[in-house]
Amino acid sequence: MAQNEVQPLPIEQAQSGLAGLEQSLWKSCADYVRERPTSRILVTGTERGCGTSVLAASIAVNLARHLRYPTVLLGTDFLRPSLATYCGVPEDPGLSDVLGGSVKLSGALHIAPGLPELRVLPSGSKRSPLAGEFAGDAFKSTLAELSNSAGVILIDSPPILTEASTTALLDSVDAVILVARARVSLKADAAEARLRIEGAGVHFLGAVLNRFRPEFSRSIG
Questions:
Q1: pLDDT in tens, 94-142
Q2: In the chain, what's the furthest Cα-to-Cα distance?
Q3: pLDDT over threshold 70, residue 221
Q4: What pLDDT, in 10s, does the model give residues 46-100?
Q5: Strand locations in the chain, DSSP E?
Q6: Which of 163, 21, 192 is nearest to 78 (CA)?
Q7: How far is CA 12 from CA 18, 87, 89, 187, in A?
Q8: How do residues 159-205 score in pLDDT, each as one tens digit?
Q9: Under a CB-based contact definition with an 8 Å cutoff, are residues 9 and 112 in contact?
Q10: Nearest Cα to 56, choosing from 48, 45, 68?
Q11: Is residue 21 part of a domain?
């Protein structure tokens, strides 16, 4: 590799194994953000292990690298943080530290290596989420500050059906992508998740069936 050549991000090295990011969903996502000066998109799952972090990182990298959109990738899973791993940045400090007051936002934002259009605010120091913190002033002011410098904010969250903190995030986003896992997630759970999303008045951008086998459909209607 030449001295000035940038190493691919971990998520880019793994994308050949990604089964979830269909062209139709990517086009829908790209069209959606083109139509809005600022967009906040939540990526959540029906349960843990669906691959939301991988998908969120993949979409963020595509928006930043191919569309040159100033993008922020935001982690909100304080119990099982993994987002930073896919972007080649430290896991902390991050959002949990910002909300806890131990670090300022500027000290927790990381630029993805070789991709200045993408900044990552990882989940941060591992802890349990506090009741109501994603509906509180500290989180909302953090989102507002991020929106001042980024066209798109991709939010990676815990499962919507089991985590009250994720439901609270619906009040702060414009659209949601739902991720399910092939041969694990139940259709009834996916339907319930969509009802919650649309019941909150949030645009349902699409659904992805991750870890599929070729004989199965990739997406959930």
A1: 999 999 999 999 999 999 998 999 999 999 999 998 889 999 999 999 9
A2: 52
A3: no
A4: 888 778 888 888 888 888 888 888 999 999 999 988 888 888 899 999 999 999 9
A5: 39-45, 71-75, 110-111, 118-121, 152-156, 175-181, 203-210
A6: 163
A7: 10, 9, 14, 30
A8: 998 888 889 999 999 999 998 877 666 788 888 999 999 999 999 99
A9: yes
A10: 45
A11: no
Residue appearing with tokens 């699409």: 206
pLDDT of residue 31 exceeding 50: yes
Distance (Å, rounded) from C-alpha 120 to C-alpha 75? Answer: 8
Number of domains in the chain: 1
**Which residue, 104, 54, 105, is CA-closest to 77?**
54
Output the six-digit token pair for 123. 């989940």
54: Cβ contacts below 8 Å, ≥ 6 apart: 11, 14, 18, 20, 86, 210
Q: Is residue 5 part of a domain?
A: no
* Residue 144 CA: distances (Å) to CA of 44, 148, 153: 21, 6, 10
Please give the single-letter amino acid code of residue 217: S
Range(s) of the domain holding residue 66: 38-210
Q: Does 25 reside within a domain?
A: no
Instruction: Show the tokens assigned to 183.
Output: 């041969």
CA end-to-end span of the chain, whole Å? 43
Q: Is residue 7 part of a domain?
A: no
CA angle 41, 163, 96 (to 5 degrees): 70
Residue 72 three-state SS: strand
